[in-house]
Design brief:
Elements lengths: L1 H40 L8 H13 L29 H4 L3 H11 L12 H9 L3 H14 L7 H11 L5 H11 L3 H5 L5 H17 L3 H6 L2 H9 L7 H14 L3 H8 L3 H8 L8 H16 L9 H4 L9 E6 L3 E3 L6 E3 L7 E3 L35
Helix pairs in contact: 4-5, 4-6, 5-6, 6-8, 6-10, 7-10, 10-13, 13-16, 15-16
């Protein structure tokens, strides 16, 4: 019995010593893996509390001598994936991201969104959260002006979407933006061979004029900005710049005081020259002509000028767009055959001709780029501008 007890005792002691050696060998490796996992998670937005952050930071400090810094993320984040909430809009790592890259990511992915119920792309959500501070908002606006290419047909739409969803800028932010842009008539002539910057600037001004109201809109239309927009209507400018400068002036004119200010600037003389482009074979110039004519008929009236609808020939037109069956912000041409939307909402109109039997077809000339839907509608269909 004594021999058996001694054998069991020595065998147990050897097993226990072996187990200790195994644990001493593996514990540092396990701690290293756990530490690396925690540090890797710190690169993304987490659903953790401030207390957990403190525990995590203390853990990293004690294990610092044993844990290697993990390698940087080898693959870019999926721009469609929404962020994990937790730290809020002022989380430092999110603010350090490349604003230009987020804008271009949004431009690339926005064309894949086909449903109102889809999650906004991660890049758009991040930009909106960055714009919750004055500094972040100014960074986003400057990036929109700087990086959106002229040739992308959805560029102006992305500018509108981003600015429309961002919080309203403060008075200080608007003042700082005016100082940064430093717009004037001379600025409109600079970089004429690179019109993207001017197109984006006029698009941003138009969005802000529509978004703001009252004193904020009046304060934004400084003499320098008004001079910049008016000089952008000169024939030396790119037609796209002329178009968005004219749209910006329309948006500013939604405030009565601004409308009076623009009207007193002799803008009608330039619009009468641009009105001649309404039938131009160049579709960009044709859009400028359409907007110039619409402004002369509805906003900036010139004394002695006959309204276009009073002189247009409707003899051979048997069906047209119905000006009494249309949503609020759609522009319809005097002959009722063209419609244009420059609002951030989705506007609609029906035709004056009803089809209830037989076989019919329609023909459409698409003059502009952008998002549109053309088709058949019943009398009971409702126009929802969202």
């Amino acid at each position: 019995m004594i021999v058996v007890a001694l054998v069991v005792f020595y065998a147990s002691r050897s097993l226990f010593q072996g187990l200790l050696l195994t644990l001493e060998h593996h514990i540092p490796r396990l701690l290293g893996a756990l530490g690396a996992s925690n540090m890797g998670n710190s690169c993304v937005c987490r659903d953790d509390s401030g207390a957990e952050d403190n525990v995590e930071s203390q853990s990293r400090q004690t294990e610092n001598s044993r844990v290697h810094v993990p390698e940087a993320r080898s693959h870019p984040r999926d721009p469609v994936r929404p962020p994990r909430r937790g730290r809020g809009p002022h989380e430092p790592r999110r603010k350090k991201q490349n604003v230009d890259g987020l804008v271009l990511d949004t431009l690339a992915v926005i064309r894949t969104l086909v449903d109102n119920d889809q999650e906004p792309p991660y890049s758009m959500i991040t930009l909106h959260e960055m714009a919750e501070t004055d500094e972040g908002w100014l960074e986003v606006v400057q990036s929109l002006i700087r990086v959106i290419p002229l040739e992308d047909p959805l560029g102006p739409a992305v500018i509108t979407l981003l600015l429309d969803e961002c919080p309203l800028p403060t008075k200080d932010a608007l003042q700082k933006l005016t100082e940064i842009l430093n717009l004037s008539g001379a600025a409109a002539c600079q970089d004429a061979c690179h019109p993207a910057k001017h197109r984006n600037t006029t698009a941003v001004l138009g969005c802000l004029a529509e978004k703001l109201a009252g004193p904020a809109s009046i304060g934004l239309l400084s003499p320098g900005i008004l001079e910049y927009l008016l000089h952008s209507l000169n024939f030396q400018s790119h037609p796209t710049v002329m178009l968005f400068a004219l749209i910006a002036l329309e948006k500013f004119a939604q405030t009565s005081e601004n409308k009076m200010t623009v009207s007193e600037s002799c803008i009608t003389d330039q619009l009468i020259l641009l009105e001649k482009w309404t039938d131009n074979p160049d579709y960009l110039k044709r859009q400028v002509g359409f907007c110039a004519q619409w402004s002369l008929d509805n906003l900036f009236l010139k004394e002695g000028r006959q309204f276009t609808y009073e002189k247009v020939d409707l003899t051979n037109i048997r069906a047209m767009l119905n000006s009494n069956d249309v949503s609020e912000y759609l522009k319809i041409s005097p002959h009722g055959l063209e419609a244009r939307c420059d609002a951030s909402s989705f506007e609609s109109v029906r035709c004056t001709f009803c089809v209830d039997s037989g076989v019919w077809y329609y023909e459409v000339t698409v003059i502009t780029s952008g998002v549109m839907q053309i088709g058949w509608a019943t009398k009971d269909s409702k126009f929802l501008n969202h």
